[in-house]
Amino acid sequence: MIQQRILVTGGCGYIGSHTLVSLLDPSNSPSIQYSVVVVDNLSNSSPESLVRVADICNIQGFVIGDDGRSGSDPSNRLVFRAVDCCDYLQLRDVFLEFQSEGGFDSAVHFAGLKAVGESKLIPLTYYQDNIGATLTLLKLMEEFGCRRIVFSSSATVYGVAKDEKAKLKETDEVGVTITNCYGRTKFMIEQILTDFHGSHKLLREQEAQQGRQQNSSRDLSKVDETKPLDSSEQQQQQQQQQQQQQHNDWSIAILRYFNPVGAHPSGKMGEDPHGVPNNLMPFVAQVAVGRRPYVNVFGTDYDTKDGTGIRDYLHVMDLGDGHVAALKYMDEGKSGYEKLNIFNLGTGTGYSVLDMVEAMGNACGKEIPYKMAPRRPGDVTIYMADPTKAKEEMGWEAKRNLNDMCNDLWKWQTGNPNGYGGEDSTVKKVKPVRHSLFGS
């Protein structure tokens, strides 16, 4: 069986933690055994999520340290380090720690701030954290020879579509009509990854040209091929081989996903937003459980069947499986190896806000109170993915439906009304590990 160690940044968060379950589930990759190293600054997450991951995946002996800053199991299938990805030295220590064990085969990059509204209020923090963390990670991956990454992007890079009723494709225009700083950071990181991938091709071409020039300058007719290479020639040959290996193309997968919802079907894991939820379904779930009085439905005059906006909702476990599919797609010898790959992850099916409220009501067995409110600036009528490419090239498609999303979310919410901070939590609350480029 192939063994691969994956670095997962932001792995304590909602999508990251559910992706860990997908990675550690042997049924997803019968021929590969993944082990994972999670780095997270805990600014919007809890290491308790990793305790739940270990429980679900039957990883025996996983323990978070008394200070909440580290954790592992005896076999190191699941390892945690409280590190801010903007902190070059701390993150480098993680790379050094595992260098003697073969380092990392890949990285899955979730770490970053993600609240659309908040990003408009503190844009410098969003640019600093999201882009800074990515640059630090890429620099260290390059230094330690790990050249395969899955990046957690977003459908927000498409901005306001020219045809709001058309399903969005990977070839559609991006970056031009983005309405918030969060989306712009995702777009900028996509551009960084594109430039970085292209640079390695240029380096290889440059080295090949230099090699041809060196060969043409030698008088090969005077070379005695039966004579062993002297030490200087051997050293030069080794250096050329090392340079060739060093400048192999990166394998990069950019995953643009739409609206992740739901929870693990066990009810042990789910979304645990700090403060008022920014997304629809966690808010609806909190109303259903009595933590909030009603749902505000923003916009009643859209050109849809019930006047409310339509979105493409995707079960978070389908999304986790999509990250595993992307890693396998970029394994050596596979179609995505040493390429820049971009995929939409969605269902291709849209549901209105009132559809979602009704479906959640069905899941919990009672009506969800809601009030109609004016549109919010920047909201669009319909936002749906065309996931055809992911199915045709990676073999991935969403398997879970709307009922699964709501039933699993309700199971999580009723079993954990206070999220990971409830009575069942085995980990004390930990102060976030923050690193600022601005010195504060």
Topology, pairings included?
Layout: E1 2-9, H1 14-24, E2 32-40, H2 48-56, E3 63-64, E4 70-72, E5 78-82, H3 88-99, E6 106-109, H4 116-121, H5 123-143, E7 148-152, H6 181-217, H7 231-246, E8 251-257, E9 259-261, H8 280-288, E10 295-298, E11 310-315, H9 316-329, E12 340-345, E13 350-352, H10 353-364, E14 370-373, E15 382-383, H11 388-394, H12 402-415
Parallel strand pairs: 1-2, 1-6, 2-5, 6-7, 7-8, 8-12, 9-11, 10-14, 11-15
Antiparallel strand pairs: 3-4, 4-5, 11-13
Helix pairs in contact: 1-2, 1-9, 3-5, 5-6, 8-10, 10-12
In short:
The protein is an alpha/beta fold and 440 residues long. It has helices at residues 14-24, 48-56, 88-99, 116-121, 123-143, 181-217, 231-246, 280-288, 316-329, 353-364, 388-394, 402-415, and strands spanning 2-9, 32-40, 63-64, 70-72, 78-82, 106-109, 148-152, 251-257, 259-261, 295-298, 310-315, 340-345, 350-352, 370-373, 382-383. A hairpin with a 5-residue loop joins β4 (70-72) and β5.
Task: Please give a structural write-up.
With 440 residues, this protein is α/β, with parallel strands linked by helices. Helix content is 38%, strand content 16%. It contains 12 helices and 15 strands. The strands form 3 sheets. The chain has a 9-stranded mixed beta sheet with strand order 3-4-5-2-1-6-7-8-12, sandwiched between helices. Strands 9, 11, 13 and 15 form a 4-stranded mixed beta sheet that branches. Strands 10-14 form a two-stranded parallel ribbon. Strand 1, helix 1 (14-24) and strand 2 form a beta-alpha-beta unit. Helix 1 packs parallel to helix 2 (48-56), helix 5 runs parallel beside helix 6 (181-217) and helix 10 (353-364) packs across helix 12 (402-415). The protein is globular and about 85 Å long. The model has no long low-confidence stretch (mean pLDDT 90).
